[in-house]
Amino acid sequence: MFSRSGLLALVFALSFSLAGCDDDDYREIPGNGGEDLPDPGEFQATITGDIERDLKGTAFYEIMEDPASTEVFFFLNLAVTDSPGHSIWASKGGPRPASGSYSILNMDMEDINESWLFDHDRFAVWFIDDPAGNLSIFLADGGTMNIHRSHEDEVVGEFFVEATGFFLTDMNTPLKVEVRGAFNAKIGDVQPPDL
Q1: Secondary structure element (H or E) that encloses residue 136, with its range
Q2: Rounded alpha-carbon distances, angstroms, from residue 99 to 7, 37, 148, 152, 183
Q3: Residue 71 to residues 16, 21, 92, 119, 155: CA-CA distances in angstroms?
């Protein structure tokens, strides 16, 4: 388990996220049953459970290489552009994922130092919530990531995540949430949190 100082360093690193302009316009994604999904470079999501939020903001992805292993991985950042602060990260080993449905890993704090970042079949998802300085961190218990479209300049999809987290001020009381969202991520320069 993380020490308190190690966790504080992790949370500080996770707090750094991308920002951009927001836009209320959405467009229909072919092959998605007629549902509207965000415009390029945007996401929207709803959190229910012990924390409840409606989120929207920027969506970017990058194909990265781990300098230690030289392994390539896909990294997605969804960042809220207004208050309360919130950032969602997702990663998957290998290049940009093809269209299809993927499982989401069941994670815990011990996984931070393992090879979960590079799982080639499943996504890892984790996120922070920071309303007025009452920061909480969440790791996925499971869920699904559906990629509707995958091109070299955009990745479009939807996700459902069940997650467990805690407030930084009360690490012994678990918080349970469900997150449903959609994104239309543009390729960009993404800085992953230093885990």
Answers
A1: strand 136-151
A2: 35, 16, 5, 12, 14
A3: 24, 33, 11, 11, 21
For 70-76, which contacts have Cβ atoms below 8 Å and span 24 or more sequence positions?
71/118, 73/117, 73/118, 75/190, 75/192, 76/155, 76/183, 76/185, 76/190
Per-residue pLDDT band for 85 (boundaries 50, 70, 90) equals: confident
Nearest one of 33, 49, 61, 176 to 123, comparing CA atoms: 61
Q: Which residue has the higher pLDDT, 76 or 26?
A: 76
Task: Compute the distance between CA of residue 156 and CA of residue 152 in angstroms, rounded to an integer.
Answer: 11
Instruction: Delimit the domains of the chain by residue range.
Output: 4-187
Structure tokens at 88: 């969602």
**8 Å CB contact between 89 and 75:** yes
Query: What is the tens place of the pLDDT at every residue in 134-170?
Result: 889 999 999 999 999 999 999 999 999 999 999 988 9
Is the preceding peptide bond at 84 cis, omega within 30 degrees of 0?
yes
Q: Do residues 193 and 14 lie in contact, with contact meaning Cβ atoms separated by under 8 Å?
A: yes
